[in-house]
From TrEMBL:
Main location: membrane
Membrane topology: Multi-pass membrane protein
PANTHER family (UniProt xref): INWARD RECTIFIER POTASSIUM CHANNEL (PTHR11767), INWARDLY RECTIFYING POTASSIUM CHANNEL 1, ISOFORM F (PTHR11767:SF102)
GO CC terms, sorted: monoatomic ion channel complex; plasma membrane
Stored SUPFAM superfamilies: Voltage-gated potassium channels
One GO term (biological process): regulation of monoatomic ion transmembrane transport
Domain Potassium channel inwardly rectifying transmembrane: 8-124
Coiled-coil region: none
Annotated transmembrane regions: 12-34, 95-121
Record's subcellular location: Membrane
Protein name (Swiss-Prot/TrEMBL): ATPsensitive inward rectifier potassium channel 12like [Bombyx mori]
Naturally occurring in which organism (per UniProt): Lepeophtheirus salmonis (Salmon louse)
Length: 171
């Protein structure tokens, strides 16, 4: 499994932006579909249409004109920017349910992305792995069991005990 921590910063920021745009467009499509099913997008039922001016029609979402206004409503819902004149009414409970679901999904995406960026900023720069064989460096008389590795090794605690029976010429 590829870890999100191994992605470059460019890919991480692209994932960050795409996760928001995908949810905005998805929920905008759902809101547009709800308004279309309810009949809010018919010319007489649109804001400024005869039925709305006469008070005969109550739409699911006020000021829903087209897909662009559905997209703005989706963005405003997910980030709690504020609706201005665009808001749900009690006419369509399905729009209210979708709106509350989008708010929860938006909070989860933001928490995931903040956690990902924070973990990426706080992770160590170098990764290590252990060789299958122990060998000595002839020039420095050092034992090498660790090599550099850029990979998904996280939080290893190693304790090493070396036992040797060595005899020199003087003994």
């Amino acid at each position: 499994m590829i870890s999100f921590f191994l992605y470059s910063w460019t890919m991480t920021l692209l994932l960050f932006a795409l996760s928001f745009y995908i949810t905005w467009v998805t929920f905008a499509t759902i809101y547009y579909f709800i308004s279309w099913i309810h009949g809010d997008l018919l010319p007489d039922n649109l804001p400024g249409g005869e039925k709305q001016r006469g008070g005969e029609w109550k739409p699911c979402i006020l000021e829903m004109l087209d897909f662009a206004s559905a997209f703005l409503f989706s963005l405003e819902t997910q980030h709690t920017i504020g609706y201005g004149s665009r808001q749900t009414t009690n006419e369509c409970p399905e729009a209210i349910i979708v709106m509350s679901f989008q708010s929860v999904i938006g909070c989860l995406i933001q928490a995931f992305m903040v956690g990902l960026v924070f973990a990426k900023l706080s992770r160590p720069k170098h990764r290590y792995f252990f060789n299958s064989q122990l060998y000595k460096s002839p020039s420095q008389n050092l034992t090498n069991i660790v090599s550099f590795f850029l990979g998904p090794i996280l939080w290893y605690l190693v304790k090493m005990v070396l036992c040797a029976n060595e005899t020199n010429r003087c003994a």
